Amino acid sequence: MFRPRPDARPATVTVLVEDTEVTVPAGASAAAALLLAGLVAMRETAVSGTPRGPLCLMGVCFDCLAEIDGVPNRQACMVPVAPGMRIQRQRGAREAMR
Ligand code: FES
C-alpha cells in the first residue's frame, strides 16, 4: 500500500512573524515568511534608518537581516523555516553575538 516517505515533510509550517502566526510552505525561507506576512521592508539601516527589503534571496546582499529565534543579524533568505520559529524585523544596529 501507499505510505508517506519517512523523510516527507509536512506541506506547511506555522511560524510567528512579528508575533502573528503565518503558515508558509515547508522548506521556505524566513525571508519568504516575512514576505508572505506582507512585510517587504525587513530591516532598517543602522545609520539612517532607511527601510530595506530582500534583494537577491540567495545570501549575497544582506538586505534581509532579521532577528530569528532571538538571534539578530541572521540572513533570513538563508534560514529555512521551522515550526514555531519566531521571526522579527530588525530595526537599526544590533550587537554582534559572541
Ligand atoms: S536577500 Fe540578499 S542576502 Fe538575503
Distance between the termini: 51 Å
Shape: elongated
Please work out how many helical segments DSSP would assign.
Answer: 1
Give the averaged pLDDT, no decimals: 90
**Oligomerization:** single chain
Element pattern in H and E? EEHEEEEE
Structural class: mainly beta
List the ligand species.
FE2/S2 (inorganic) cluster
Number of strands: 7
Low-confidence segments: none
> Largest sheet at a glance?
5 strands, mixed
Helix content: under 10%
User: Could you tell me the radius of gyration in angstroms?
Assistant: 15 Å
What fraction of residues sit in β-strands? Answer: 25-35%
Strand order of the largest sheet: 2-1-7-5-6
Topology:
Layout: E1 12-17, E2 20-25, H1 30-36, E3 43-44, E4 51-52, E5 65-68, E6 71-75, E7 86-89
Parallel strand pairs: 1-7
Antiparallel strand pairs: 1-2, 3-4, 5-6, 5-7
The structure holds FE2/S2 (inorganic) cluster (FES).
Describe this structure in words.
The protein has 98 residues and is mainly beta. The chain has one helix and seven strands; from the N terminus they run ββαβββββ. It has one helix at 30-36, and strands spanning 12-17, 20-25, 43-44, 51-52, 65-68, 71-75, 86-89. The strands form two sheets. It has a five-stranded mixed sheet, covered by helices on one side. Strands 3-4 form a two-stranded antiparallel ribbon. A hairpin with a 2-residue loop joins strand 1 and strand 2. The longest helix has 7 residues, at 30-36. FE2/S2 (inorganic) cluster is lined by residues 31, 54-57, 59-64, 75, 77.
